[in-house]
Amino acid sequence: MARLSGPFIPAIEDAAARRLRLVDASDTGAARRAITVLHIGDTPEDTFLIGRLVGALPSFSATFVAAGTREAALSALSRQPCDVVLCEFWMAGRTTMALIDEIKAVADVPVILTSALDNDDIELIGRRAGADGLLMKSDLAVATLDRVFSTLLPRRQAPRRDAASMLRALMSNLYAAGLTLRSEQDGDRAADQEVRRAALQRSLVDLEAASRFGAGVQRFDAIAFFVDAVKKQALRAEAGGAVNFLVPSLPLPIETSPTLYADLVEGFLTEAGDAAAAGGTATVSLKATTGRLVATVRSSGGEAVAIDAEARAAAAERRLLVEGLARACGGNVAFAAEDGHVLDVPLRLSSLSR
């Protein structure tokens, strides 16, 4: 499955554009566009396959560059401009979210994540880290790459700023803080950990300001976002699993950035989807109290256990991202609390503390 982020989702063509064009023997079609494709990955088999696919693109005459390490990737970008980057989500036993941030800092180039997992966590954290799309390895084919490149490259817009850049900084500091799949630190590293946590807190403050003043704050009904997210997570339910939503009887208006709020709700309710995918039942409740919106996910039966290291890393980074998004919206989130997972955000911006 190929997924493109934000403004890079292809527009629906009109009827005239969909009509077949008659050609004769002298019609050779449009000239192939020259591009440079950088593939970042540490699996030689994947690099070989993608290289062959890129070389066979019908719409592009592509120069293929391969990098097996972070250093090689940044070196390649410094030596020559690239039109698109295909980057593995999982390299050398860790995710590449920090590398995406480094790429975006040195080059205005679209980055498409590739992964063997069809995982919503990867899509969410990848999008918020600055990736422009997600491509499953099972869907790798000449036609797929040609379509993705044809859609993505002509529609490039100016680099995203404000909240998006702050989110990339947040993800970078989350990674640097050593929080993802990291065992408890000993006392000798406590000081270094505190410095990195301070950098993380600064990113959160910047992100909150960006969400309030640069991310399109609007007033809307909070319930609709939960309805859509619950439907999406319910599709993951295995035999005996279910996601139930106790829908409030009255609208719950909230004033915040719909973009940040949508990803916050989707990421938070993944906890319900995890329970349903393990055969359990998750109940989502939503209420307003003293100017705040409180959402709770309670699970019974079926406990999700991610065996694959890549899936565990994606889930861990997803939780860290949800925590950051909650702070950006002026709230907080508590996972595995006594009464379930709890998300608490203010209903109005005036409720935020400076």
From TrEMBL:
- Which InterPro entries does the UniProt entry name for this protein? CheY-like_superfamily (IPR011006), Sig_transdc_resp-reg_receiver (IPR001789)
Q: Where is the Response regulatory domain?
A: 36-152
Name the domain of life: Bacteria
Q: In its UniProt record, which GO terms are filed under biological process?
A: phosphorelay signal transduction system
Enumerate the Gene3D superfamilies for this protein: 3.40.50.2300
This chain belongs to the protein called Response regulatory domain-containing protein
Native source species:
Pleomorphomonas diazotrophica
